[in-house]
Write a structure and sequence with these properties.
about 80 residues; mainly alpha
């Protein structure tokens, strides 16, 4: 009985070690086309453009988008 329980726990613990089959959407072409629809000359270094694009295209909020844009070098 204990061996089965340990086997189940070990299997569940190891299942989290492999990445999921779904690709990440960060920096996807959908985001790029969205930003080009918002701004004809999108500049991620301009804080207002960066935050607006983040909110509308990446579905972020003001706090996370401001932090993200700041880390990307926007001013």
């Amino acid at each position: 009985m204990w061996k089965v329980a340990i086997l189940v726990v070990t299997t569940l613990a190891l299942a989290g070690c492999w990445p999921s089959s779904e690709p990440e959407v960060t920096g996807s072409t959908a985001t790029n086309s969205c930003t080009s629809n918002l701004y004809s000359r999108f500049n991620p270094k301009v804080m207002e453009q960066c935050v607006n694009a983040c909110i509308k295209c990446d579905r972020g909020n003001v706090t996370t988008c401001t932090t993200s844009c700041t880390l990307k070098g926007a001013r």
